[in-house]
Amino acid sequence: MRRASACTDAALAEVVPMMSGRPTERDVRDELEYRMRRHGADGPSYDTIVATGANGARPHHRPTATVIEEGHLVVIDVGALVDGYHSDMTRTYLIGEVDPVLRRMHDVVRESQLAGLAAVRAGMTAGDVDKTCRDIIVDAGFGSEFIHSTGHGVGLQIHEQPWVRTAMPEPLQSGEVVTVEPGVYREGLGGVRIEDLVVVTDTGCDILTASPKDISCLQLAPTN
């Protein structure tokens, strides 16, 4: 899974600069999947999600011919398959100057995701990790727009136990691999999701996905 995550990170690093050229969602997906294979993946872990602008409000959007434009947020949910094991990662990119509401959504989701990562450790319940992320989003006024669970287990299947969602009483176990992926989705405007794949440890978690998510790294200026 470390190798799968490394393939994903390498492919994304190569493709992100291409978004300044106003590609379509499908163009970005095709490049990601090609480059993951070039870096040693057997293929994608699942149907790669590239959702720009208002399409980002649909968490499981399938890429279309929609062009990435100035003022968009672009949600990219991508993973590689290596020797039967999966990776899973999401990043959200700001294209030029965006609506202040979108920037606020990004800031809140990033704060929520970092808090969730800090909460993961053996013995912490999956429900408590979900609550840690969800409380920040609720307090910021976006609670009704966080419409899915915080995460799930990953391994030989892309979705498996443990489920990181509300009221899950089971404690996380050292060595389990889970995602932490809060999101906020506003119909007609766009969405934000930030996701990392982590290994639960006795003292916290080991983050397998390394692509930058600081907002200063995600500002892209499309060409005219």
- What's the main sheet like? 4 strands, mixed
Radius of gyration: 16 Å
Distance between the termini: 39 Å
The sequence of SSEs as H and E is: HHEEEEEEHHEEEEEEEHE
What is the quaternary state of this protein?
A: single chain
**How do the strands line up in the largest sheet?**
2-3-6-14
Write the CATH architecture name.
Alpha-Beta Complex
Shape: globular
CATH names the topology as: Creatine Amidinohydrolase
Given helix and strand content, the structural type is: alpha+beta
How many individual helices? 5
Protein topology:
Layout lengths: L1 H14 L9 H14 L4 E2 L4 E4 L20 E6 L1 E3 L2 E2 L2 E7 L4 H20 L6 H14 L11 E3 L6 E5 L12 E4 L2 E4 L3 E4 L2 E5 L4 E3 L7 H4 E2 L4
Describe the model.
This protein is α+β, with helices and mostly antiparallel strands and 224 residues long. It has a single domain, classed as Creatinase/methionine aminopeptidase superfamily (Creatine Amidinohydrolase, Alpha-Beta Complex). It has 5 helices and 14 strands. The strands form 5 sheets. It has a 4-stranded mixed sheet with strand order 2-3-6-14, with helices on both faces. The relative contact order is 0.19.
